[in-house]
Amino acid sequence: MASTLSGWFKNCYGLDDFELKPVNFGLRNRAIIYSPNGIMKTSFAKVLEDISKGQPTTDRFFRDRPSTYDVAFGPTAYSHAVLKKVDEIYVINSFDESFECQSSSITLLIADTQARQRYDKIYGEFGALIGRFEANLVKSSGISKAKMQGQIVSDFQLSTTSNWIDIIDKLKQSLAQFTDNEIFSSFKYVDVFNSNTQKLFDDPSFLAHIDEYVARLNDLIRDNALLSSEFNDANAEELGASLEKNDLFKAHHVILLKDKKTEIKDVKGWTTLVKAELDKLYSSPELAPTRQALRGQLNKNVESKRLLAIISKNPGIIRLLTDLPKLKTTIWLHLALSSEEPFAPLHDKLAQYREELDKIRKEASREKEPWKNVLDEFNRRFRVPFTMTVSNQEDAILRDRAPTVSFQYKSCKDTAICTKENLMNWLSMGERRALYLLYVLFDVERIKSLASQDTTKEYLVIADDVADSFDYKNKYAIVEYLHDICSIPNIDLLLLTHNFDFYRTAVSRLNIYDENCFIVQRDETDGLKMQEFGNPEDYFKKIVQAIRNGKIGSDEYKKKCLVASIPFYRNIADYLNKTEVKNCLTRLLHQKSEDPSTESITVKQLWNWLVAGFEVGALDIDNPDQPVVGLVTLLADAICKESSDETCLENKIVLSMAIRLGAERYLERILKEHNEDTECGENQTHKWAEKARPHLPADSNKVVSEVCLMTPEEIHLNAFMYEPIIDMSDWALRDLYRRVRVLASGTEPA
To answer: With a threshold of 0.90, does the pTM exceed it?
Structure first.
């Protein structure tokens, strides 16, 4: 599998017009882009994150400009015009204060893959069964699917975290004591309970009328031949439903009423008698005033009129309105029993599923879960004052609930349980970044799991300055994690960094090929330019080896290496305490008048100093008596004629030296013209600039300020300190050199 990443971006988070040249992961599944801060890294990563999340891209400042991009990764093309969430691309940002990992990432890691697959299969079958049951309830209750589960949970006073398994358990438990009544088949749940009827139920006068009605009804019942206070109208209807379901008359039983005369010998006889007695009760003149008052309150809007129609048809419902919570659960129990999807088999199937799920849970608990492996590896590589746990592990495995992550914060011998939000308030920035990285690792582990399951699919992970602000130990720990990602053949890793030391470390430790090492900088038109950067790990070894034997001759490149090596040799002399050599070489980095002056030092003298301090061969060069300053100027002039090359460090060093020396020659002349003292120790350029500032024209002052800003004080160049020159654009140095040359000599480069 050989994927290539390429793309074009316009008005995307500050990327005005950027072409991502093809990055060939077929060479090796890792690549790196080095770019100074503020150029392109975060904007580029943000677009790729938008692609992964299926969300639109905008410009940071010019929101009215349309943001467009076309990205190709392997055979798949991504465009701003088609947004779709994808798993194949994942972005690790430098730091995100509001970070969260996808709950599916931890869930996937809680149980082993086979157990999870078995669980998903069982839960899928169960989910289909639940879906049909839920659809029937939606149809018969009138409540939308979106509100259905929450309404039942609320009516049965279940925990807010309850799901359909809990609901069905509760229904099963409640149905054991439930007697159904056909009265509930004549209306829907929403006909009785809706926003308008709720206003009535909250009205004390309406409830008072209900209570008054029931009290008068009870008074009438006490004198009724069929009913009594212990056996009221509701009981009579419930008994009728029970008799119809379990016909005791088929066994030749007879019901003898309390008058000791009337016998009921069949269901029809009971139903007829009850109906006649209830009709007589409900239409009695004693109930008329209260009934009329209720009618007046119910005759206000469409919903309350619908309830009035239900009560008019079934007056027995009025008694049920005295206990609204019970009425709600009663309606749900009726709907469960009357569902097109029979309830009893549904619960039996659930029990069967649960038995299998319990088995899976026990099997999973016997093995160490992958998420704990991630945490153990994190704790091995990082020293942090917290540990993480998943507090609802069983629910996350078996009940499809999002894992709840909690933390233990350790201080001396004490520990405290806290949430991520509380923990973030007390951690240092480095510890917060480490916690963020832990969350990222769960997401990465999910990507690794997906990639391992389907090796025909290629995944892309983009890491944007992932090691930023970490100390060296933790930077190396991060490189270990990056190496782990690269160990999966079908995961391609693209690193973005502005830290040159991390760039060198990643290139070396991850063995990234030169062809996949890039740099992006601004060019002379303020556009973005991407080119191969290679591995500068042995940069000084390269330039020192080029000239070490002294055989330079007329080779312009070797002359350039000779000049570029001066700052390096000066620093080495300083480290080795070779003070005389160090001071001599410093004269070629700063303008000095005392003997030997900067202007008088020849190439031969320079080489003699190198011979005195280091193991170099005899000098063989075409013009050994040429002043070094003159050679620097000639080389800088020649560089200005060449095509721009952002990756050529020796060009940037020569230009930086030429800029510094030219600026100091100009400043020395100005100071002497105004009788200012030029004696100076350290920080000569800055001190001369401050002294000369009152005597400089505005344009010259601006150029000198840029020199102080853009060239390091002593052009330090060692394994750690030459990042500023790398970050400096080649064209910016050329432009500054041209302006300094005009100041120093009055002429443009030859």
So the answer is: no
